Amino acid sequence: MMDRDIQKYLPHRPPFVFVDEFDTDEKGETTVGNRLFTEDDFFFKGHFPGMPVVPGVILVECLAQCGGAGIVKSGRVPSNSDFFLATVKEAKFHAKVGLGDRLDMEIGTIRIARNRFIVQHGKGMVNGELAVEASWVCAVVPHGQEAES
Question: Is residue 109 part of a domain?
Fold first, then answer.
């Protein structure tokens, strides 16, 4: 069953929450989720005015938030953890994502190293068409601490 309470798993708060609902398998190896982009999204006003396009960095953030929430929900990292993007690799944007589009995400966890780093890969689709894919590494730190550089 899809979980709509992402704020239970991540520290992000509006207007910077980019997952509407998600679910993960028991091992936290695969997480699925989605995000519907609406006229309430702050970035549409200034990013290509008159042509509402979701910025690529927001699409990557959607994937990372979905993956992070899945890892916490599965119990593979402590629930009081914060995640900081450390590396984004191989981000590819295949199709425009715009106002009214629903991004369906599938995230795979490749590895968790010493509960300090999470390596994931994800893809986002709109109407079954691949729109974005990326791989990334997140640093994991206890809530309130800064990530090492």
Answer: yes
Higher pLDDT, 27 or 107: 107
Do residues 37 and 54 make contact, with C-beta atoms less than 8 angstroms apart?
yes
Task: Say which residue the tokens 């006229």 belong to.
Answer: 39
Q: Alpha-carbon distance 63 to 106, whole Å?
A: 8
pLDDT digits (tens, 9 = 90+) for 93-134: 999 999 999 999 999 999 999 879 999 999 999 999 999 999
Known catalytic residues are 47
Q: How far, in Å, CA of 67 to CA of 31, rounded?
A: 6
Label residue 148 by pLDDT band (50, 70, 90).
Answer: low
149 inside domain? no
11: CATH: 3.10.129.10
Buried b (16+ CB within 10 A) or exposed e, 82-116: bbeebebeeeebeeebeeebebbbbbebeebeeee
